Amino acid sequence: MKRIYSVFACIVISSVVQAQVGKGAIIIGGNIAYQDQRSDNPSATYLTHDLNINPSIGKAIRTNLVLGIDLSYSHSISDYMNAGEPNDTQAGNSFYGGVFLRRYKLLGNGFYLFGQAEAGINYGHTSTDYPLNVPPSSDKTNSYGIQLLLYPGIAYAINQHWQIETGLPNFFAVHYNHSSETAVVTGQSSQESKSHSLYISSSLGGTNAFTVGVRYFIGG
Fold first, then answer.
1. What is this structure's pTM?
2. Most exposed of 102, 134, 150, 203 (fewest Cβ within 10 Å)?
3. CA distance to 34, 63, 69, 166, per residue, from 115 (Å)
4. Rounded Cα gap, residues 46 and 87, in angstroms
5. Cβ–Cβ < 8 Å for 66, 57
6. Beta bridge partners of 51
7. CA gyration radius, the chain
8. Cross-strand bridge partners of residue 154
């Protein structure tokens, strides 16, 4: 009987150890999203195209502690066509890079609670053309910013390689942003303006937004 208990205890301990995120494990995640939308009315057509690519990779520097990077690229184009002629066209590109530290805590039965802290920088460029204005005009905006994010989440291990997770990325965030805008009207001098903003946000204020993702684990 003691031998049976010993075998059972070894199985339990082994399963718990294997359930941890082991030191040296490589974690890969991310998503790709594309949206194409068209709206028509009797006098105009509005077209939008959006592409978002968000890769993520990390490494467990200690058991259940992951250090990694998040990257993001977004591209968008919007056209407002009046009577078949392009009127307003807006194109934008944005880039983001961040470093994160994530701590996992095993809850049992394949479930984990995690907390993540992330610091990142972003850059964006947007240009808008108004070809049918009299005279024609355009507007260009460049912006950059830094941000700090703190948020919790829950993950579930489907097997030793795959996990699905949900998180609350707007739990707490601090953002600083600087932007410069140049407005050009044909035949006139360009007008430049600059702005700065600093704000703190929290989902506790009622703007809750959950995300769902998948991560792949190698080794560990």
1. 0.78
2. 134
3. 29, 14, 15, 12
4. 10
5. no
6. 34, 75
7. 24
8. 113, 166
**CATH code for the structural domain at 2-218:** 2.40.160
Residue in the structure block whose two tokens are 């941000």: 147
Query: Is pLDDT larger for residue 10 or for residue 216?
Result: 216
Mean predicted confidence (pLDDT) in 173-199 = 92
DSSP, collapsed to helix, strand or coil, labels residue 13 as helix
In single-letter form, the type of residue at position 58 comes to G
3-state secondary structure (DSSP) of residue 203? helix
How far is the C-alpha of 5 from the C-alpha of 11, rounded, in Å? 10
Listed by start position, the domains of the chain span 2-218
Indicate the helix (H) or strand (E) that contains 19: helix 2-19
Are residues 143 and 178 in contact, defined by beta-carbon separation less than 8 angstroms? yes
Which residues are bridge partners to 34 per DSSP?
51
Summarised one tens digit per residue, pLDDT across range 141-150 is 999 999 999 9
* Long-range pairs of 199-206 with CB within 8 A, sequence gap ≥ 24: 199/174, 199/175, 200/172, 200/173, 200/174, 200/175, 201/170, 201/172, 201/173, 201/175, 202/170, 202/171, 202/172, 202/173, 203/168, 203/170, 203/171, 203/172, 204/171
Which amino acid makes up residue 140? K
